[in-house]
Design goal:
alpha/beta, two-stranded antiparallel ribbon, 10 helices, about 35% helix, binds zinc ion
């Protein structure tokens, strides 16, 4: 083989290798768009899609599953959303646990596990986050997507230079893809605004009384292990906090600033006039003081750099060698939902919601998530 032939062989070899790498990477990338199955409990009374409430969303990347559990006795109607921020796994997984276990005896509960469905199809850029994490269940490992805080730019692009949200607040560009800044939505706006509008339509059409939006935040962020409440829900939130305290669970109570606009609970309360709270648990893969982000960290919540930060007094949560496992964070979300429902029943008995089948939080703490995922 002469020099020219050798060059051709090298070039062809490199092209084949490059094409192989592109095919593998492309398959992994497109694999993020596969929708993970949620298997609703036999107590489900109606499976819907957000597009049923706002038809222009049907079939778009913003459409998402809605699970309705209706009891035989009349009572209140409660909406629980997970996945407003798909990079906050405990909010998403808590909503899945609810959807896969609930049975309503009285009143109605509507669960949306992936409120921003598009955000589940990509990762946060430049974070080197894993695409998935795995929870061990009796039937074997079950994988969940770790998504992005924002709508996938493939579905909504470009971002404006400055973003004036539907509530009239000026925000930085990428917030146009943050579902928790786009309420109360615009029927003909950006995709994320249309999703927010779809959820507002659901609230109006289902006559929702109370909305609970499940989130997480970084351990070094002060609004954490918290119930953030709309001012019309102050009493509801305070009663829930006291009730949680009596169970041994500390939650901060945070009043939502009235001038911070576009958030779920803010606009659900202002625009739809319903009771509204947002629940935060600590997310070890969201902050800046952590070490490498692995799928294991999402689930076990143990990070030696956070341990160091905790010892230096830089965290807003208690943090030791045990970390903050996903099961503990889901247990806290479920405890908060239960406490808020008890408060609602006490304040407005005709809006009582009675649910069965879902695990009490100490069981999730003791047994982990596996037994409660179908
Ligand atoms: Zn969030």
């Amino acid at each position: 083989m002469n020099k020219d032939q050798a060059r051709i062989v090298t070039a062809v070899g490199l092209l084949v290798l490059g094409a192989g790498a592109a095919i593998l990477a492309g398959r992994a990338f497109l694999g993020m768009r596969a929708v993970e199955p949620v298997t609703p409990s036999p107590g489900l009374t109606r499976a819907a899609r957000l597009g049923d409430y706002f038809p222009p969303l049907a079939g778009t990347a913003g459409d998402t599953d809605v699970y309705v559990f209706e009891g035989r006795e009349a009572g209140g109607t409660v909406l629980v959303t997970g996945g407003t921020h798909p990079n906050e796994p405990a909010g998403y997984v808590s909503a899945v646990v609810l959807a896969e276990n609930l049975r309503a005896v009285r009143g109605k509960v509507i669960v949306i596990p992936r409120a921003n469905a598009s955000g589940f199809t990509c990762n946060d850029p430049q974070e080197a986050n894993p695409q998935r994490f795995t929870v061990v269940t009796p039937a074997g490992p079950r994988a969940f997507r770790l998504g992005s805080r924002l709508t996938n730019p493939v579905d909504q692009w470009p971002d404006p230079t400055l973003y004036e949200n539907p509530a009239g607040q000026m925000l930085s560009a990428s917030e146009v893809r943050n579902l928790n800044r786009c309420y109360p939505g615009r029927p003909k706006g950006y995709l994320t605004e249309r999703v927010a509008f779809g959820i507002m339509e659901l609230i109006r059409k289902e006559k929702v009384d109370l909305g609970i939006d499940l989130h997480e935040s970084a351990p070094e962020y002060p609004v954490i292990n918290a119930i953030v409440f709309h001012e019309a829900s102050a009493e509801l939130a305070a009663m829930a906090q006291m009730s949680l305290q009596s169970e041994g669970l500390d939650f901060r109570l945070e009043a939502s600033p009235p001038n911070l606009r576009g958030l779920s609970h803010r606009e659900w309360g202002d625009a739809a006039g319903i009771k509204a709270v947002l629940v935060e648990t600590p997310n070890p893969v969201q902050g800046r003081l952590k070490g490498r982000t692995t799928a294991g960290l999402v689930v076990d919540g143990r990070d030696k750099d956070y341990l160091k930060a905790a010892r230096l007094g830089r965290l807003f949560i208690p943090y030791d060698e045990r970390g903050v496992p996903l099961s503990e964070r889901v247990a806290r979300h479920l405890a908060a939902v239960a406490a808020v429902l008890r408060s609602l029943a006490e304040l407005e008995p005709e809006k009582t919601v009675v649910l069965e089948g879902w695990p009490a939080w100490p069981r999730v703490l003791d047994e982990g998530l596996g037994p409660f995922l179908r």
